[in-house]
Amino acid sequence: MCSNVYWLTLFSLTDMAVHLSFLLIFTGLTGIDSITTLRKAAVEPGGSITIPCHYGSQYRNHVKYLCEGNYFSFCSIVVQTNTQHHSSRFAISDNKPQRIFTVIINNLTEMDTGYYWCGVEINGWSDDGNYFHLSVNRGTPSLYVVQQAITVSNGFNITINCHYKNSGEMKWCRLGGACVAGSSGTIDGTRVTINGSSPDVFTVIMSELTTESSGWYLCIKGDLDMPVHLTVTERHASSTTKSPTNSSPTATTPQHRVFILSFAIPLSLLIVIVVVALFMWFIFKRHQRNKAESTTTDHTVDECLTYSDIVIKGNMRQMNEPTDESVIYSTPQTKKD
Fold first, then answer.
1. 246 — phi, psi (to 5°)?
2. 262 or 176, which is more confident?
3. Which has the closest alpha carbon to 100: 197, 6, 176, 3?
4. Rounded to two decimals, what is the model's pTM?
5. For position 238, what pLDDT does the model report?
6. Which SMART domains does the record cross-reference, listed alphabetically (predicted)?
7. Check whether domain 142-251 has CATH 1.10.3720.10, yes or no
8. Which CATH number fits domain 17-139: 3.30.70.360, 3.30.310.70, 2.60.40.10, 2.40.128.270?
9. Which of 19-23, 114-118, 210-214, 254-258 has the lowest mean pLDDT?
10. Which whole-number Å values give the CA distances from 302 to 233, 331, 336, in the listed order?
11. Greatest pairwise CA separation for the chain in angstroms
12. If DSSP codes are grouped into helix, strand and coil, which group holds residue 49?
């Protein structure tokens, strides 16, 4: 009896080991959780969004795709990397050095709300993938940034404003990497500061960026994510004397643009009015000067003339019929200095 129990236990352990070995082999070949993407994003109708999908090094030369559907096994592929077909709504590109493929979805409608999958094709095995949920609703999205792509020179700082309406913890994460959840921290050696004191927006500041800081990041608030791509370029020699702190590019919000326009338009009108007034004043002064010069000329001519009296010889009654002999003519002469 005891021997039977012994052999039964031995066979059970052997069978478990075999299953565990197959599981480990399958995990190593397919890579469970080897694809990372955002969890949930919100977009307004008519807008667009870029979705980054980070994959493991074993998938560098595999075909990548995006498919739509609640279940990975039955989802419909909408775009993939091994086709030349171009769509006006979907575009896909694969950055193999960074092991990230991105999908752009344009002209979103409420019908596009649903689950999507970042997928990798594996020949002879089940494809690998990870899902995200896209919500397209009217009105301002619950979490958004003004621009998803930002470019800055190395050594500079960058400020990203994450606008939100939902509740939950604020985070700034590198896609497939580390996160900063508190007020400050570091991601791959770059200093990160998060300021959530302003209502409906928290600000992320990344200091003294390097080219290694380039990549995809996630602005996270609660259960919503918004991807932001950062490109850090080499700084030109002409900009080496500039202070990185004073040159930090900040995303301009629509409110800022409205404020600038409301200030610039009245200023432009004021400049036009001043120019016209100065032109009219110049014309008026010129007219006054010409008039004064004309009056001075008339007085000068009068001062330069000498008048002589005309004397009539003979009786007064002869004035009605003067003759050449009784009239003396006189010609005005100018004075000599």
1. -80, -10
2. 176
3. 176
4. 0.62
5. 53
6. IG
7. no
8. 2.60.40.10
9. 19-23
10. 82, 15, 14
11. 186
12. strand
Residue appearing with tokens 């478990």: 16
Distance set, CA 157 to CA 56, 242, 243 (Å):
30, 12, 10
CA distance 142 to 138: 11
pLDDT in tens, 291-326: 766 665 555 445 544 555 545 454 444 444 555 555
Q: What is the DSSP letter of 21?
A: H
Confidence at residue 93, expressed as pLDDT on a 0 to 100 scale: 95
Q: Where are the domains of the chain?
A: 17-139, 142-251, 258-299
Fold: same for 17-139 and 142-251: yes
Could you give the CA distance from residue 272 to residue 12 in angstroms, rounded to a whole number? 93
Over the stretch 196-249, which tens digit does the pLDDT of each residue have?
999 999 999 999 999 999 999 999 999 999 999 999 998 765 544 343 433 334
The residues near 247 (Cβ < 8 Å, ≥ 6 apart) are: 153, 156, 157, 239
